[in-house]
Fold this sequence. Notes:
Layout: H1 8-13, E1 17-20, H2 32-45, E2 49-53, H3 55-64, E3 69-72, H4 86-95, E4 99-103, H5 115-124, E5 128-132, H6 136-144, E6 149-151, H7 169-178, E7 183-186, H8 192-200, E8 205-208, H9 210-213, H10 215-225
Parallel strand pairs: 1-2, 1-8, 2-3, 3-4, 4-5, 5-6, 6-7, 7-8
Helix pairs in contact: 2-3, 3-4, 4-5
Amino acid sequence: xxxxxxxxxxxxxxxxxxxxxxxxxxxxxxxxxxxxxxxxxxxxxxxxxxxxxxxxxxxxxxxxxxxxxxxxxxxxxxxxxxxxxxxxxxxxxxxxxxxxxxxxxxxxxxxxxxxxxxxxxxxxxxxxxxxxxxxxxxxxxxxxxxxxxxxxxxxxxxxxxxxxxxxxxxxxxxxxxxxxxxxxxxxxxxxxxxxxxxxxxxxxxxxxxxxxxxxxxxxxxxxxxxxx
Length: 228
């Protein structure tokens, strides 16, 4: 019998902002307590959900905010490293993630599994799956394999997608035309105007990270702007 999966997290995200509360390795903000406070601040500011990295942070965040937690687990920095295996995905479900975000590109997964295997495991555990993709073809394939949402997270960062400095609104629009699941715009969204443009292009919701939760990167940007 197929487990019954909640639809409420998806309803809560429609037309809304998701804040990515993460920090890279070595950054002073990469501390569980600090990231939880980030998530609480996002909730206070009106976010509909938060996207956080690693089971420990997922568990602490789920206990601290009354929002859906989108969990991922970055393991490594090349190839498929965003929730790369079924083991990683189930650890996030166990930690309290309502939605598990995972790389759904065409690249091979380190445990030899398929994206469909990961989706089936998460669904069996009662969670939903956000497919992080780089191209429209990958998004369509991820939806066919059972993804509950498709996100443009990897556009510009994975083979087959063009490098660019602006949000990939063309990919957002292509996915909105070709998949029946919600489309999430993520990647290089740096202003409220760009976030609104992503919704206008067909996104169901929008993820913003660096522009809200990355003081080190933002300080570096301003400092560079003052350098002759």
